[in-house]
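Hi L., both proteins are below.
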Amino acid sequence: MIFNPFPYKIFFGIFLTGIVIKIMDDYMDREFDKLINRDNTTKILGSGVLPYALFIFSLACILNPVTAVSLFFASFATGMAGNLNAKMPSGLYGYQEALITIVMGLVLFGVMEMFSSLLLIIAIQLWDDYVDYNSDRYSIKNWAFILGKNECLLLGIIFFILSVYLDYFKALSGIFSMWIIVYIIKLWFNYIDKPQNSGEEVPGE
């Protein structure tokens, strides 16, 4: 495994896809995050959100196209879960877009690949909602409020165990990537928010 590049390509493909999913999620939640004053990557990326996301996703597809696209499909379908009865720009309802995306994934990538991605993304979404329970008290899309906080955590663990059963390397890589991405973004915002030393003397010092 040390000398075989394939596992590394899978891991970094998952990591880069995770960044894209995070950017997409932040873009969709930018108005709500602005309302509660929560860090959002679109604050920094601005109009560069789309080109950066496409560039990073292109790299992920070069490394491992099947894993990258199946995770993105799963993320897209899961994102529709909060808008099941809403009419989308395509003219379809949220549940219709989610169903079509899942079916496409099953046809293109197979049952194991698509369901392992879907279970992993759902687990991460549930854990994220559990962590954001206090800050998302005004959100109607947080599953910790819909299901209950403890139930949300437990269900997330169950989905993760199922994803490990289907594809342990993808599941572990996905969780590890999630921690790295969250930590990097936290450091990024700490650096941005840190007062810059201009070298000017402050009166009274």
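That was the first. Here is the second:
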Amino acid sequence: MSKQPTIARIWRGRVRRERADEYEKYNYDVGIAPLIEKALGVQTFREDREHESEFMTISYWEDIPAMARFTGRDPTDIHHLDRDPEFLIELPKSVQIIRLLTSHGKTG
């Protein structure tokens, strides 16, 4: 029986618009690719605005202990990638952890 997600972890960060493409590649290579190997699912989003782009990553987990096994510490703590200070307009201070109540339709 496959594991079902009960928790979603949401991270958001903003970069200057002119560096968005570069950050998107860096974020995938260093942050998202390892996450894909451990989470039950990962979705990434990008919203381009006039002067900035916002990135959002939602990862899905069986439970809080499963997230903790991946992070090696409290999964509610923010983890910055090495080059985040170079790219991000401001370093996020937190992530959002929410319970997944139900899922409808197909998102794959």
